[in-house]
Design a protein that fits this description.
This protein is of the alpha+beta class and about 475 residues long. It has 16 helices and twelve strands. It is found in: Endoplasmic reticulum; Mitochondrion inner membrane; Mitochondrion outer membrane.
């Protein structure tokens, strides 16, 4: 099978094929620029939303699993107010915020799961350290998972599995990332020499080892910013993906401006209610995300390509930024939640994980996961009232939307008879997304779920769809169903 990139190169060398590409991937009128710039029209007023007649997705002989509520610390640009903290500080703040928001008794929680990507070596099981710091019982088990950008998605679905199987009734799931302080190692040669020195028993052995030292041993090893299997950065992959789907620099900048504008509007209207204040030790209390910065297309156009130079289209303005933050959600069996007097926000329903070629389809997880989760739930795109997709790059989002709206792509790459269809923008990430709100790798999944649940409540919708891509060519999608009023 030709890779997407090879297909693009072939098309570029063949004018007739370029026209064919545009027919398949760029339906006429699909990208009306006026729909991407500025703030989108508001969704219908709550009173104008017609009563739903859709069936619930409850399944016979299976426990209903609900989200009671969720919180997150403000998501901040790395190197700002959280720069002197450790990851477990942020995770503890999210757990404390959840305890305050829900008043759940600490000893009722059966299990705690957190996602993270770049682990602090001193607190490798950050879930356990944060739980102890937040005052949970030392008898409450906790473990940490990692699955790149869908780590907290994995934490939540692991919680679903524990509850569905009857192992637990009450689980806290969350995620954390602190990009302000990542572990930097000595070189492998230096590490080997230091380990050998620790084992040396005589002065002669020590002197012999020290004599082998060279200055280049002091070269540090930074955390990998590239795919291990391909040695390619995600930004580089995003640039090639945008080129393969003929997504212009202007379209990417317009989408990024849309994300920042909508996030600014949502923040101003108090819609980002999952954010809880955090008193940073020795500093002021942080109350809101600080990466929301609507600019102008003219200013954005001045930035140089960040990855493929000088002709790439991915820039700092249309990419998600390095972010510090943590999130946590309270997940229960429905009968347990009601017995405790809670009014849940939403049901967590069907979910899927997918994986593709990490070279040329690294960021297409939502395209592959969406039709699978819809089929599993017995729904169509028209049934979905709120879409919340992770925005790694503008080019990544627009490529997914084009792929989802292409019969050609569905038939040639996914083995499907027809396209699933593209989400309508008036239902898509209308409170902003990762491009503007920020993307702490391990924490974004919980933000997506809570944004969906809160939107469904406010807009009167019934079904939401969460989707995200992740490093390694993986992806996730989940159906969230509003809890009846």
């Amino acid at each position: 099978m030709w890779t997407i990139f090879k297909v693009f190169i072939e098309f570029v060398n063949n004018t007739a094929s370029v026209l064919c590409f545009c027919v398949f991937f760029c339906p006429r009128g699909m990208w009306d620029r006026s729909s991407l710039t500025g703030i989108q029209p508001a969704p219908p007023a709550l009173e104008a939303v017609q009563a739903k007649s859709k069936q619930t997705l409850a399944k016979p002989n299976m426990r209903n699993i609900v989200v009671v509520d969720g919180v997150r610390t403000p998501f901040l640009l790395s190197g700002t107010s959280y720069k002197d903290l450790m990851p477990h500080d942020l995770a503890r703040a999210a757990l404390s915020g959840l305890l305050h928001r829900t008043s759940v008794p600490k000893d009722v929680v059966d299990y705690i799961i957190f996602g993270t990507v770049i682990q602090e070596v001193k607190t490798s099981n950050v879930a356990r350290e944060a739980a102890l710091g937040a005052g949970f019982s030392d008898r409450t088990p906790a473990h940490t998972v990692t699955m790149a950008c869908i780590s907290s998605n994995q934490a939540m679905t692991t919680a679903v599995g524990l509850i569905a199987s009857g192992q637990c009734d009450v689980v806290v799931a969350g995620g954390v990332e602190l990009m302000s302080d990542v572990p930097i190692r000595h070189s492998r040669k230096m590490r080997k020499m230091m380990l050998d020195l620790s084992k040396a028993k005589t002065l002669g052995q020590r002197l012999s080892l020290i004599s082998q030292f060279r200055l280049n041993f002091l070269s540090p090893e930074l955390p990998a910013v590239a795919e291990f299997s391909t040695n390619e950065t995600m930004g580089h992959s995003a640039d090639r993906l945008a080129a393969a789907f003929a997504i212009s620099r202007l379209e990417q900048d317009e989408y990024a401006l849309r994300s920042h504008s909508l996030a600014k509007k949502a923040q101003g209207e108090g819609l980002l209610s999952d954010v809880v204040p955090f008193k940073v030790p020795g500093k002021d209390t942080v109350t809101q995300d600080n990466g929301i910065r609507p600019s102008s297309l003219e200013q954005m156009a001045k930035l140089k390509p960040a990855f493929i130079k000088p002709y790439g289209t991915v820039t700092a303005a249309n990419s998600s930024f390095l972010t510090d933050g943590a999130s946590a959600v309270l997940i229960l069996a429905e009968e347990k939640a009601l017995a405790m007097g809670y009014k849940p926000k939403a049901y967590l329903r069907d979910f899927v994980y997918v994986s593709q070629d990490p070279k040329d389809q690294l960021l297409l997880g939502p395209t592959y996961a969406t039709p699978k989760v819809l089929e599993k739930a017995g729904l169509t795109m028209n049934d979905i009232d709120a879409f919340e997709f992770h925005e790694a790059f503008s080019g990544q989002i627009l490529a997914n939307l084009k792929a989802m709206d292409s019969d050609w792509f569905a038939q040639n790459y996914m083995g499907r008879k027809a396209k699933v269809g593209s989400p309508p923008l008036e239902k898509f990430n209308i409170w902003g997304g990762s491009l503007s709100l920020g993307h702490p790798f391990g924490a974004t999944g919980c933000r997506l779920v809570m944004a969906t649940a809160n939107r469904l409540q406010k807009e009167g919708g019934q079904y939401g769809l969460v989707a995200a891509c992740a490093a390694g060519g993986q992806g996730h999608a989940m159906i969230v169903e509003a809890y009846p009023k």
